[in-house]
Amino acid sequence: MHLTLEFGGGLELLCKSVKIHEVDVDTKSGEDKLTMKDLLSWIQANVIKERPEMFMKGDSVRPGVLVLVNDCDWELSGNLDTTLEEKDVVVFISTLHGG
Amino acid sequence: MEGGDATRARRATVRLCSICNQRKAALKRPKTLEQICRECFYVVFEDEIHRTIVDNHLFKPGERVAIGASGGKDSTVLAYVLSELNRRHNYGLDLFLLSVDEGITGYRDDSLETVKRNEIQYGLPLKIVSYKTLYGWTMDEIVKAIGLKNNCTFCGVFRRQALDRGAAVMKADKLVTGHNADDMAETILLNILRGDIARLGRCTLITTGEDGPIPRCKPFKYTYEKEIIYTYAYFKKLDYFSTECIYSPNAYRGFAREFIKDLERIRPRAILDIIRSGENFRISSSTKMPEQGTCERCGYISSQKLCKACVLLDGLNRGLPKQGIGRTKGLNKSKDEENKNSSFHSKPCGTLDI
């Protein structure tokens, strides 16, 4: 599944200062859907290069990290249960780095 | 970024905006839990800040207002919103951007570039004041002298004064900063944790220093950080730079910050409620409060003979960088002792000339 991931607000520093990542994520065998929960663990394994604790806490993002799926706050689509589709754009912005 | 395909099943079930009832909701307001669309969000976001400004009489027509600009998200959004509201509601303000260069290699270099772009984008003039000019030391030099333990104390104390000094040099009537509701909740907690009663009383005021040369105010006092980020994320043209300060990986404030964010996730109103609690604290009349005066050396407001910046600077210049850190108030202890120590050879900080 092709997705566009954007990291901002300082989170890009955790992935070699690259803000926009065009990625192809494999769905679990036997399933054709991908949830945010799956995506987060995929990101942790494949995109985040350092200090994963700045991005994740438990099985979700750290409080203070805003998540937008196609410009919509993921709180409106079910947080971790949000289902992703081909060509979705997922944005992560940290609010923890001061302003 | 494309809005997505409206025919997809997931999106068809998405709720409509509870304000316009036409467009699909894009976010949930932390303050009210209303689910609203982007367009309605801009309107309520800017309206609320306008209301805060009007209800609290933050400005008078004709005032020259310095916007403390770090290049970070809060001050960038503040510069944008203020220039917008100033035009729309005819505040009649003469706005300009004021930035501080701490002299941290690789930290401010990039963010000052952002402020320079803001200068062009919003058509606001920019003034940069440096620690080096104001105090004779860059933060890099300070860290070299004192190490990484108390450097944030220096930076914080120096920064606070730098904005006032810069504003005075630029003949501003007022200084505004981008401190938001989350910042204020954090500060209230920190002052409680430190037992700093005087600051606890002061820190919830929307305008401070009204009897001083340059009052400061916080138009974002009731604005959630999250909504500031939405504004940034949606207006792609908002240019904002963010990086951690290389010298403060684990400051005390960071823990308070994370605690606030944890609370917000469970109950978003907690942030406003902490502010409300802070505003309504009443300090018992038997509590001895420090008297506000002015620093003998530079004229900045201080409850001691010398302001914190002058004490710290004195220590740096004399090779006693621990001076002024923690509870010992070496320089402020006795006047006689101070008079004996006249070994001031390095550059003292300039006086406030107002």
UniProtKB/TrEMBL annotation, chain A:
Domain of life: Eukaryota
Keywords tagged on the record: Cytoplasm, Isopeptide bond, tRNA processing, Ubl conjugation pathway
Entry annotated with the keyword tRNA processing: yes
tRNA processing among keywords: yes
Pfam families hit by this protein: Urm1
Glycyl lysine isopeptide (Gly-Lys) (interchain with K-? in acceptor proteins) cross-link, renumbered residues: G99
Cellular component, GO, one term: cytosol
Post-translational modification: C-terminal thiocarboxylation occurs in 2 steps, it is first acyl-adenylated (-COAMP) via the hesA/moeB/thiF part of the MOCS3/UBA4 homolog, then thiocarboxylated (-COSH) via the rhodanese domain of the MOCS3/UBA4 homolog.
Residues with 1-thioglycine modification: G99
Family: Belongs to the URM1 family.
Function: Acts as a sulfur carrier required for 2-thiolation of mcm(5)S(2)U at tRNA wobble positions of cytosolic tRNA(Lys), tRNA(Glu) and tRNA(Gln). Serves as sulfur donor in tRNA 2-thiolation reaction by being thiocarboxylated (-COSH) at its C-terminus by MOCS3. The sulfur is then transferred to tRNA to form 2-thiolation of mcm(5)S(2)U. Also acts as a ubiquitin-like protein (UBL) that is covalently conjugated via an isopeptide bond to lysine residues of target proteins.
HAMAP family on file: Urm1
Name this polypeptide is given: Ubiquitin-related modifier 1 homolog
Species this protein is from: Dioscorea zingiberensis
Record lineage: Eukaryota, Viridiplantae, Streptophyta, Embryophyta, Tracheophyta
From TrEMBL, chain B:
UniProt domain Cytoplasmic tRNA 2-thiolation protein 1 C-terminal: residue ranges: 293-323
Lineage: superkingdom: Eukaryota
Molecular-function annotations in GO: ATP binding; nucleotidyltransferase activity; tRNA binding
Keyword S-adenosyl-L-methionine: no
Annotated binding of ATP, by residue: G68, A69, S70, D74, V100, G178, D183
Gene3D superfamilies the record matches: HUPs
Pathway: tRNA modification; 5-methoxycarbonylmethyl-2-thiouridine-tRNA biosynthesis
Coiled-coil stretches: none
Enzyme Commission numbers on file: 2.7.7.-
Enzyme class: transferase
GO biological process terms held by the UniProt record: protein urmylation; tRNA wobble position uridine thiolation
Annotated tRNA(Ile)-lysidine/2-thiocytidine synthase N-terminal domain residues: 65-249
InterPro entries the UniProt entry points to: CTU1-like_ATP-bd, CTU1_C, Ncs6/Tuc1/Ctu1, Rossmann-like_a/b/a_fold, TilS/TtcA_N, tRNA_thiolation_TtcA_Ctu1
Matching Pfam families: ATP_bind_3 (PF01171), zn-ribbon_14 (PF16503)
Keyword Acyltransferase attached: no
Record key words, sorted: ATP-binding, Cytoplasm, Nucleotide-binding, RNA-binding, Transferase, tRNA processing, tRNA-binding
Compartments (UniProt record): Cytoplasm
Region span, Disordered: 326-354
GO cellular component, one term: mitochondrion
HAMAP family cross-referenced by the UniProt entry: CTU1 (MF_03053)
Free-text function comment from the UniProt entry: Plays a central role in 2-thiolation of mcm(5)S(2)U at tRNA wobble positions of tRNA(Lys), tRNA(Glu) and tRNA(Gln). Directly binds tRNAs and probably acts by catalyzing adenylation of tRNAs, an intermediate required for 2-thiolation. It is unclear whether it acts as a sulfurtransferase that transfers sulfur from thiocarboxylated URM1 onto the uridine of tRNAs at wobble position.
Family: Belongs to the TtcA family. CTU1/NCS6/ATPBD3 subfamily.
Protein name, as recorded: Cytoplasmic tRNA 2-thiolation protein 1
Species: Dioscorea zingiberensis
